[in-house]
Amino acid sequence: MGVVTPGFTGRARSGDPRLPPGQYLAEDFPVLSTGPTPRVRTDNWEFTVVTERGEKRAWSWRELFALPSEKFTVDIHCVTQWSKLDTRWRGVPVETLIGDLDTSADYVMARSYGGYTTNLPLADLLDGQAWVAYEYNGKPLTPEHGGPARLLVPHLYLWKSAKWVRGLQLTTKDDPGFWETAGYHDYGDPWREQRYQGD
Amino acid sequence: MAGTAVSGRLAWRVARLAEARQETPSARTLVFDIPGWPGHLAGQHVDVRLTAADGYTAQRSYSLAAPADGDRVELTVQRVPDGEVSEHLTGRYAAGDPVEIRGPVGGWFVWRPADPAPVLLVAGGSGIVPLMAMIRARRAAGSKALFRLVYSLRTPAERYYAEELLRPVAGLDVTYVYTRELPEGQPGIPRRISVTTLNTAGWPADFGATSYVCGPTGFVETVADILLALGHDPHTIRTERFGPSRD
Ligand SMILES: Cc1cc2nc3c(=O)[nH]c(=O)nc-3n(C[C@H](O)[C@H](O)[C@H](O)COP(=O)(O)OP(=O)(O)OC[C@H]3O[C@@H](n4cnc5c(N)ncnc54)[C@H](O)[C@@H]3O)c2cc1C
To answer: What letter does residue A10 receive in the DSSP assignment?
Structure first.
């Protein structure tokens, strides 16, 4: 047990089994990002997937919108300790976008409009675990929350769910992205409290 | 990218309260002794962990309010009504009491004394904390970088670091924006930060300044949008959001 702070009792605990350790339930939807909110227009929007050998697929906004989408309800967890339960989204499974591309990559670098990057294992984006999401709560995703489209990987801390996502680069190397370079964990599992490097 | 790579596990260290100052009726500055503190950059934050007698823990992030000074680390905590951690830290928490602290964390929202570029600091409420660390780091390093601070707050009674900021410092201009109540005798009406404020009290877009904006989400969004509208390059605008969000 850690060092006890005299007189600290803590609040009545919710004990909600759906809240990972150290998280509290947020009713609102906090916004965290590193700079101004990019206002990304959909008329020249493009989403690309590039393999480690340079093979490339690209979708315009219209083309992405025309792909089969899923509605899904998930819990999300931010490293700054808020969690939201049962958030409702719509988007295209990442698996659909990777499709039958020929790759032996183990990692992905997600890139955003505005320059943000974050790295993930490719396996964490497949099997119905991740989407390129463009609707939140039945409405188009607003710029503050990453609209027009963001990656959503609900089983990892939210910084992995790159806002204003513009593409995925498949790689064989696990290169750190923006927050990972700044000391945050390479993987970011909320249930194991992987907040910072080495956690 | 200006990252401070952290190697190895970020250790929790025992910190003891050495001194406390009441900053405003609802905010308290806490000075800790943390043996073995590795040092930090202005703008970084730490995580503070409190443990109850039954083993329950709560952990929150707080910006460092002053540059590194040996084993001394300074935070300023704003009491959030019913806030689990801030109520304790601004209330019963007393000299000698331990907490655990780990950090420093964050390598982007930082100012380095070697950087000669002009700096615009825009604070909303307790968002002044990491910006004050930058002002203090500038002074401590004898930096000549030109600084401008625009500090938005509700009333004069809520000013943090009031005396220190009143003392004139060469190369630092301070502008206050009061949103609810003006100081005694000051003409005008309370207002929010606007394009005019930042056009007058900020830097021209082509000065190559770096802007640091910190405060509640709605405030940060507004200020960043104004800076963009004034022609600032998005890559020169760094933001840190804390406190309750509005949406
Ligand atoms: C990088 C960073 C730096 C920070 N620096 C400072 C600082 O220098 N000084 C300071 O006073 N505070 C700072 N904060 C905020 C601080 O971490 C706590 O959130 C705050 O003290 C409230 O904690 P609490 O336990 O008292 O309240 P809680 O019991 O956690 O919450 C009270 C209510 O406030 C809301 N709330 C609390 N925290 C947040 C949050 N982070 N985002 C959105 N809503 C929230 C919740 O809806 C909750 O219901 C910082 C936060 C971050 C992320």
So the answer is: -
